[in-house]
């Protein structure tokens, strides 16, 4: 019997996604400023070990280690010529992390690291070409979905959607990074894009799932707030990946200290707000994933 598609699976039950990757890579020895994506080729065993811990913690979905895997990002590290190999290795590693378990690999496409015209200097057509190259490599390697994440404006998300469609993605997830306002009453992206706008734009332009991740002040409570706005402004399934609480500044670095149980305590709120996939972002660990898993299992057991 064939595995249900990601969209079929979330129509039946809530799923759990993995957590932070960058901090886990650093704990595994990645130097500050180095390319974690290059490790898919040079240290695949270390990437696999991290993702196996997330799978063992109960993640149904694992995001490929390709956040900075576009040619534009990789050229900063001198490995742009390996773009296809890096992305395809990442998918193989994520798939292997599940072992015999049925799981979903989400091919990660992060920001291009440049601002598109008319606000910046990167031409739209070039952005689409760069994103299509990465998207095609991920799709060819067999991802269950593409996640275009940590987005802040409609120009790049539109380019990402165009690229994902050109690559024949089986499912497209659009995920935005929102910042909490100074008075703590609303969320918007760095480029001023509101959740209402994102929901309507992504539905209109053919996304399959609308999501959120990261952002300043984006914890599980904030995720519930934004998820509710999504639900009120579009009919797309919703995915949330908030940070492990709010950061504190230590030695001029943002440190996330929220224990797994505290992060997971608000999971019923995001489910009530309509979230179908619940994961975590900055500061989270496999222990956070396990705590989220427990809350999602409890919900699935009582709600079918």
Task: Describe, in plain words, how this protein is organized in 3D.
The chain has 304 residues and is of the alpha/beta class. The protein has one domain (6-303): Homocysteine-binding-like domain (TIM Barrel), CATH 3.20.20.330. It has helices spanning 6-12, 22-27, 39-42, 44-56, 71-74, 83-97, 124-140, 154-166, 195-204, 220-233, 260-265, 267-272, 286-303; strands at 15-16, 61-63, 104-109, 145-151, 172-176, 179-180, 187-188, 209-213, 238-241, 248-250, 253-255, 275-278. The chain is globular and about 50 Å long. The two termini are 21 Å apart.
Quick structural gist:
The chain contains 13 helices and 12 strands. With 304 residues, it is of the alpha/beta class. The radius of gyration is 18 Å and the shape is globular.
Q: Which percent range describes the beta-strand content?
A: 15-25%
Beta-strand segment tally:
12
| Strand ordering within the main sheet | 1-12-9-8-5-4-3-2
Radius of gyration: 18 Å
Helix and strand sequence: HEHHHEHHEHEHEEEHEHEEEHHEH
Q: Distance between the terminal alpha carbons, to the nearest Å? A: 21 Å
Specify the number of helices.
13
- Supply the CATH class: Alpha Beta
CATH topology: TIM Barrel
Overall pLDDT: 96
What is the CATH architecture assignment?
Alpha-Beta Barrel
Number of domains: 1
